[in-house]
Amino acid sequence: MGKYYAESIIPDELRRNFDVYDRVKQLGIDLGSFEQHVGSLKGRNIAGAVIHQSGLVYLSGAGGGTLPMNDDPQRVHQGQQAAQTIADGHIRTLHWTLACGGEGDLNDVLYTVKVLGMVVSTDVDFNSGPAVVNGYTARWQSVFGGGFGSFARDGLDEGGYAGVHARTAIGGFTGRFSLEPEIIVAIPPALAEAIIRQRGWVFPLPPQVLDRVTAGRASAR
User: Fold this and answer.
1) Domain count, the chain
2) In the predicted model, what is the mean pLDDT of the chain?
3) Which of 39, 135, 172, 210 is close enough to 204 for a disulfide, judged by CB 3.0 to 4.6 Å?
4) Which range marks the domain in which residue 179 is found?
């Protein structure tokens, strides 16, 4: 477990009993490299993630899929696959947000707070918004724990509940894609403060911070 997670206020019976990265590996989620995924904030008007001193981490919405949704089962399945891919991207973003400066990692995630899933559909009779966003929820719980994930049996994940979240799933938006989820997670306030003190609250990194963090990684090798 992560250092900050070990020192958190989570009750013993609700603590994860697995390494998150073991599940990431088993599920085939590619986290990539520092060079690929830790970039500069220069020229960007939207952050991928923002860390609040309280311990909340807000990840920006990410769109995915190539088709708007309707209630056809095959189309819903395509949307669920797109949602899973987006979840993988958010897991990757969260990893580098927490780990790029060496302060923490995914094992320090305490729990998941909220998912908002906006599903693209111009069909006024569309009822499958929640079903589409289930693709995102299932993937997230597979990694962090929850009864809807791949490691659950009979609706129970013996590894814990850190992936379970409040959720809004709504359709009716327009666009040439399938859905856009966003997510909020909780990390220990001490970790949030450590990150903010060392490199600020925003990811990707401000240019001067990126230079310093990159140089620090090089000198540590």
Assistant:
1) 1
2) 96
3) 39
4) 3-8+17-39+47-220
